[in-house]
Amino acid sequence: MARNVTVSCVTAPALPLGSEVSIESAIDAEIAHWTMRIDTVLAEDPDLIVLPEAADRPSVDTFGGLDRQLEYLEQRGTRVRGHLAQIARDNRCIIAYSALRRDDDLARNRTEYLGRDGEVVGAYDKNHLVIEEHDQTGLEYSDEVNVVDLDFGRVATAICFDLNFDELRLQYRARGVELVVFSSEYHGGLMQNYWAYSLRSYLAASIRPPAPSAIISPLGETIGESTNYFPQVTQRINLDYALAHLDGHWDKLAAMKAKYRDGVNIHDPGRLGSVLITAESPDLGIDQLLQEFEIEPLDNYLDRTRRHRLDTIGASE
Questions:
Q1: SS3 183
Q2: Phi and psi for 149 in degrees, rounded to 5?
Q3: Nearest to 98 by CA among 221, 208, 234
Q4: SS3 call for 189
Q5: Average pLDDT of every residue of the chain
Q6: pLDDT above 80: residue 197
Q7: pLDDT, average across residues 42-60
Q8: What are residue 114's phi and psi, to 5 degrees?
Q9: pLDDT at position 317, please?
Q10: Residue 193's domain spans which residues?
Q11: How many CA atoms lie within 13 A of 238 on its CB side?
Q12: Residues 199 and 246 grouped into a single domain
């Protein structure tokens, strides 16, 4: 049955607060700023709101040097998080809050998931820092790869530079991830689409402007993107889905559509040879559809092809 989830990516440039602005005033400004930015999507009733990397850090170009940035983090503590948690509670949504954090003398670049009750329901610390983040800013690498089970599905997380590293992507590969949350200062280009297709998952990217934020399908296809007029993007996605290759399935897919009509959606992006099947009816599930029409999921088909190759090579030796 349809598992519809509304996802919003909300972003903005880092606030260009000057060095004359007090730390206390900067914290108040960040709270007011993100309250206003989040308000732009609340009418969409999002289940998940994704913020960009280090969302509430004032611009490093204007606010002051490293010592002042660290002083800001120290005084800020969990105050911004507390305010965002109240927004999550009031609107019964989840907020992916990316920020620099210092806990137990360890500084991390972290994404925390603030649940519908305002409590922290999951977190991920950036695995792959830019070298300067460690050597100059004092952030610590993490070696934990957390998959967060939210109330609507399984979520993986990547932060900025992480997107360059296959070893992180591959650790998510076999863990049933349905959505990747990507908070970043840089866009990532084709890597966003590649991660989505490789993990057979949706991807929600909240990126600092001027680069666009986006929602990407498990086919690696951009299905929603912010614009120069509207820096936020909201998209409803259906997590009751499967990918299948067209090989051996043409007639089966046609029969499925003929029988269930609007109860199923079969989307072909073109050129890829694979389609996205989603169950749209409240009393019809994707597993039921695959079984009824003997549809082989994409990864099963590719694995069968690998085995056939190895068996054929072995038989010829």
A1: strand
A2: -90, 100
A3: 208
A4: coil
A5: 96
A6: yes
A7: 97
A8: -95, 115
A9: 67
A10: 4-238
A11: 21
A12: no
